[in-house]
Description:
This protein is α+β, with helices and mostly antiparallel strands. Helix content is 52%, strand content 15%. The chain has helices at residues 7-23, 26-33, 43-50, 69-82, 88-102, 105-113, 208-246, 258-287, 292-317, 329-339, 346-356, and strands at 118-120, 136-138, 142-151, 158-165, 168-174, 178-182, 191-200, 202-206, 248-249, 252-253.
Amino acid sequence: MNLLYSDVDDQLRASVRDLLAARAPWPDVLARAESAEPYDPALWPALARDLGVAGLAVPEASGGHGASWREVAVVAEELGRSVAGTPFLGSAVLATAAALHAEDGSLLAGLAAGTTTAALVVDFATAPGTGFPKSVRFDGQAVSGEVRGIADAAGADVLLVPAVGPDGPVIVTCEAATVTPVTSLDLTRPLADVRLDGAAATVLVSGEAAVAALDAALLAGAVVLASEQVGLAQRCLDLTVDYLKVRYQFGRPIGSFQALKHRCADLWAAIAQARAVARYAASCLADDDADLAVAAALAQAYCSPVAVKAAEECVQLHGGIGFTWEHPAHLYLKRAKADSIALGTAGRHRARLAELVDLPAA
C-alpha cells in the first residue's frame, strides 16, 4: 500500500486550492456563515460540476469519474484547510457511499454530476458500528419521525432516511420534510433537525443490505473526515509558523524562542503521523480492505485530537490577535471541536477499536 500522494493527487489538490482561494477566502466564509445563507450557492456547483469532485468515488458506468476514495480524501484535506461551507461531506461522501452500496444508478448519476445534493438523515454524531436507528418509521409508502442534528440537510434535494419498515430496516429517499436549522458551534457546517410527517418515500435498499449501506456510509464519512482534520491541522500549523516568523518581542522574532520551537515541532510530528493514519484509512476504503473498520476507528481516534490540538495552539501562539474575530483561528477551532464530535468521538472510536481487535476491558 502506497501512502504517498500521486501526481494526480497533487494536481487535484492544486485545482481545489486555487478555486477555494479565489472564491472562498476566510473573510467571505465568515461573513456568509453569519448570514441566513451559510453556503455560497455558486461555490458547490463550481466544485461539484466544474472540477467534478462530487463524482470522484462514483464509477464511470454510473456517471462518475471512476477515481477512488483516495482522491476524495485529498479534496477533503483542502476543504479542511479552507473551512469553506459546502455539502461535500454530507452529499459527496455520506449520501454517495450509501447510494454506491445500494447500487442505485439514477441517484448516483445526479450526485456524481453535482446536479443533485443529498443528505443522510442520521444524527451527525453517530459513529460506525452504532447500530441501525429506530427513530423513523416507514409504513410502506411514507415515513414519520424526527431526527436531530443532521449535517448538510438544509438545501438538500434528496434525503436518504434510515427507517424501520414492516419487514425490518430500510433506507428510503424522500424530498418532502420539515428541515429546521439549529444553532451550530461550527457556523461553516450548519446542522438541522428533520421532521418527517408522513412524507412520501421510495425504498432505496432494505433488509440487511440497508444496515450494510448505512454502516458503509458512516465508515466512509469517518475516513474522509480524518483527512479533513489533517488538512485543518496542517493549515493551523502553517498559519502559526508564518506568524511566529514576523511577530517580534524583546527585539527578536518570537519563533526563535526555544519553547515555541518545541511546541511547533511537536505539532508537526503529530500532524505527520495523523496524515499517515488518514492516508492508510483512505487507501483501505478505496481498496475495500478487510482492515477498513480498524483503519477508520484508528484514524478518528488519532486525527480528531490532533486537529483540536493544532487549532488550540494556533489560537494560543497567535497571542492577542488569535482570540479576535479579525483572525481566522476561531473558524478552525470551531470546526475542529465540531469534527471531534462528528461521526463519533475519539473515545468512542477507541472503544470501537478495542472491540474490533478483541482487546479485553480493564
